[in-house]
Specification:
This protein folds into 3 domains: about 100 residues, Helix Hairpins (Orthogonal Bundle), CATH 1.10.287.110; about 130 residues, Heat shock protein DnaJ, cysteine-rich domain (Chaperone, DNAj Protein, Chain A); about 120 residues, Sandwich (HSP40/DNAj peptide-binding domain), CATH 2.60.260. The chain contains 11 helices and 15 strands. The strands form 6 sheets. It has a 4-stranded mixed β-sheet with strand order 10-11-15-14. The chain is elongated. It starts with 5 loop residues before the first helix and ends with a helix. About 10% of the residues have low confidence.
């Protein structure tokens, strides 16, 4: 796939150790893995992930690395790698890192066959109301999933029979192939890396060891979740092959728009329209919160756009921290569909303001003075 220098791709020197190599791959894989990148830039991230994976597969194999060091790209055939370079092979994010991290932090890795046996991770998009996200909820979801075949217990073999050792690779799951001057190791084409073949398949799963079904799960949504948060349900993903462990299910949270409130982190915002008389004379209003109604005092002379902060009436973040605030933005509403009598009253009120603009309308007066000064400056 890639013709860039493999050491340059991983950002390591040509004399790097195996541990340094794995740390470099881990850093790039965490950054560019498709499970962590979506939307704009996803294609570029996937390309870089495949590029890093190809480089790691070559340099982590001592024989391939020696050939590459001597002959460059001509000395290695990426297509000979298990599962093909740059391909995901059905592997999940946790699957890839379980192997690399195991070698770095102890545990010695899991080996090729175990890694391929783990089931794929799944994602479920869950839409919640703002109330459910803020207060928490328990939601039932129904998902199609591949599960272990109960008839053969995931082996794929007919009851009473057992898989047989592969005659091609003798149970190793990999074979060596001569390519010119080099001998390279690749996945056994007969057993596809399993080390065993099923000669008498299960009648229920037809040798796959897994069947497709729908299951209902209960998801406990903690209070305070927000858009983009994920809830991990361990072992609720696809069943592994040949009895391998199941993957995980990641529930992706999406909070629906609310008709009154807008959320920003731990704060809630809402707009409160008030009559022009209340804005001028002051008064008291009832405003909603997610926990009920509260009183909001409007001082006389309130202008549109004024913000009032109701402390502790917002959201408690799911990861801890203080409860946010509810911030109410006042919108002074101009009366409409006036009667002739109401229009007359407003005209009389307007006349009473004449000559007293600075006193009753300081913002308008200040703005008009600014406009006047602007035009005078143009003349000079």
């Amino acid at each position: 796939m890639s013709q860039r220098d493999y050491y340059e791709i991983l950002g390591v020197s040509r004399s790097c150790t195996e541990v340094e190599l794995k740390k470099a791959y881990r850093r790039l894989a965490m950054k560019y893995h498709p499970d962590r990148n979506s939307g704009e830039g996803a294609e570029e991230a996937e390309r870089k992930f495949k590029e890093a994976k190809e480089a790691f597969e070559v340099l982590s194999d001592p024989q391939k690395r020696a050939a590459y060091d001597q002959f460059g790209h001509a000395g290695v055939d990426p297509a000979a790698g298990a599962g093909g370079p740059g391909g995901f092979g059905g592997g999940s994010f946790a699957d890839i890192f379980g192997d690399v991290f195991g070698d770095i932090f102890g545990g010695g890795g899991r080996g090729g066959r175990q890694r391929s046996n783990r089931g794929a991770d799944l994602r479920y998009n869950l839409e919640l109301s703002l109330e459910e996200a803020v207060h928490g909820a328990e939601v039932k979801i129904r998902i199609p999933v591949t599960v272990k075949c109960s008839t053969c217990n995931g082996t794929g073999a007919k009851k009473g029979s057992r898989p047989k050792t592969c005659a091609t690779c003798h149970g190793q799951g990999q074979v060596r192939v001569q390519q010119g001057f080099f001998s390279v190791q690749q996945t056994c084409p007969t057993c596809r890396g399993q080390g065993q073949v099923i000669t008498d398949p299960c009648s229920t799963c037809h040798g796959a060891g897994r069947v497709r079904e729908e299951k209902t799960l209960s998801v406990k949504v903690p209070a305070g979740v927000d858009n983009g948060d994920r809830i991990r349900l361990a072992g609720e993903g696809e069943a592994g092959e040949s009895g391998g462990p199941s993957g995980d299910l990641y529930v992706q949270i999406h909070v629906a728009e609310h008709e009154i409130f807008t959320r920003d982190d731990s704060n809630l915002y809402c707009e409160v329209p008030i009559p022009i008389t209340t804005a001028a004379l002051g008064g008291e209003l009832e405003v909603p919160t997610l926990d009920g109604k509260i009183k909001l005092k409007i001082p006389a002379g309130t202008q549109t756009g004024k913000m009032f902060r109701m402390r502790g009436k917002g959201v408690k973040p799911v990861r801890g921290g203080p409860v946010g605030d509810l911030i109410c933005r006042v919108l002074v509403e101009t009366p409409v569909k006036l009667t002739e009598h109401q229009k007359k009253l407003l005209r009389e009120l307007d006349e009473s303001f004449q000559g007293k603009g600075a006193r009753h309308s300081p913002q308008s007066t200040g703005w008009l003075d600014g406009v006047k000064n602007f035009f005078e400056s143009l003349k000079s």
